[in-house]
């Protein structure tokens, strides 16, 4: 079998589900009706984000919950301009997130910055002129 080359769901382990839902709603995302008291879902272009209590997520995997520090993963949102990068970062900070790196020109020819959500999940917001945005919001890789 070949594993399909696609991303369907990213599940973020969060410390306080209600607080995290409020953050993602404050940045303008709409919670899916598929959400319940145990998990919150947000539909994104091409995939979904699930918010699930961190300890329960670790238990589901069968690993200890080692909260803290950088987990070695970032998530990225590509946007259509440098101005939209800065606007998205400002929205995340206004919603209670923290600015990890302000928008700036990148060595790869684009413009990007990072914010962290309430549980230190790092999101890059980037404008990459080499990766145009399709009508469905996905990126078009050359």
Could you list some keywords that capture this structure?
3-stranded mixed β-sheet, alpha/beta, 30% strand, 2,3-Dihydroxybiphenyl 1,2-Dioxygenase, domain 1, 3 helices, 22% helix, 142 residues, 4-stranded mixed β-sheet
Topology diagram in text:
Blueprint: E1 9-14, H1 17-26, E2 40-44, E3 47-53, H2 54-61, E4 74-78, H3 82-94, E5 98-105, E6 111-116, E7 122-127
Parallel strand pairs: 1-3, 4-7
Antiparallel strand pairs: 2-3, 5-6, 6-7
Structural account:
The protein has helices spanning 17-26, 54-61, 82-94, and strands spanning 9-14, 40-44, 47-53, 74-78, 98-105, 111-116, 122-127. The chain has 142 residues and is of the alpha/beta class. The relative contact order is 0.18.
Assign the CATH architecture: Roll
Oligomer: single chain
Number of domains: 1
Order of helices and strands: EHEEHEHEEE
Span between N and C termini? Answer: 26 Å
- What CATH first level would be assigned? Alpha Beta
Query: Helical element count?
Result: 3
Low-confidence runs of at least 5 consecutive residues: none
Largest sheet: 4 strands, mixed
Total beta strands: 7
Structural class: alpha/beta
CATH topology: the name is 2,3-Dihydroxybiphenyl 1,2-Dioxygenase, domain 1
User: How much strand content do the residues show?
Assistant: 25-35%
Q: Spatial order of the strands in the main sheet?
A: 4-7-6-5
CATH homologous superfamily (4th level) name? 2,3-Dihydroxybiphenyl 1,2-Dioxygenase, domain 1
- What number is the mean pLDDT? 91
Q: Which term fits the overall shape? A: globular
Radius of gyration: 16 Å
Q: What is the share of helical residues? A: 10-25%
